[in-house]
Amino acid sequence: MKPSASATPLTVESPLTAESPLNPGQCSSCSIGRRTSLELAAASAWHAPSLMSGTSALAFALLTGNARAGANQDDEFPEVHKPAHLRFPRDHGAHPDFRTEWWYLTGWLDQGSQPLGSQPLGFQVTFFRSRTVQSRANPSRFSASQLLFAHVALASTEIKALEHDQRSARVGFGHASFAGDKTDLRLGDWRFWQTDANHYQSIIHAKSFSLELDFETQASAWRQGEDGYSRKGPQPKQASYYYSRPQLSVRARLQWTGKPKPRSSKSANGSTGLPATDGMSKMTGSRTMTGVAWLDHEWSSQVLDSQASGWDWVGLNLDNGDALMAFQIRRTGNDARAPNEALWRQARLRRADYSTRDFGDAIRFNALRWWQSARTSIRYPVEMALEFGDRRLILKPLFDDQELDSRQSTGAIYWEGAVSVFENGQVVGRGYLELTGYGERLRL
Question: Which H/E stretch holds residue 328?
Answer without folding.
Answer: strand 323-331
